Amino acid sequence: MDNHELKATWQALERRLQQRETIDLWLLKDRHGSKVRTTLRPLLIGQVCQILFGLVLLLLAVAYWKRHLDNGVLLSMGIILHAYGIACIVLAGMTIGRIGKVDPSQPVVVAQRALAGLRRFYIINGMITGLSWWFIWMPATTVIFGLLGSDQRWLSAGAYLPGTLIGVAGLLATWWFHNWSRSPERPRLAKAVENSVIGNSLQKSQRMLDELAAFERE
Question: What is the residue-wise DSSP string for 13-50?
Answer without folding.
Answer: HHHHHHHHHHHHHHHHHHHHHHHHHHHHHHHHHHHHHH
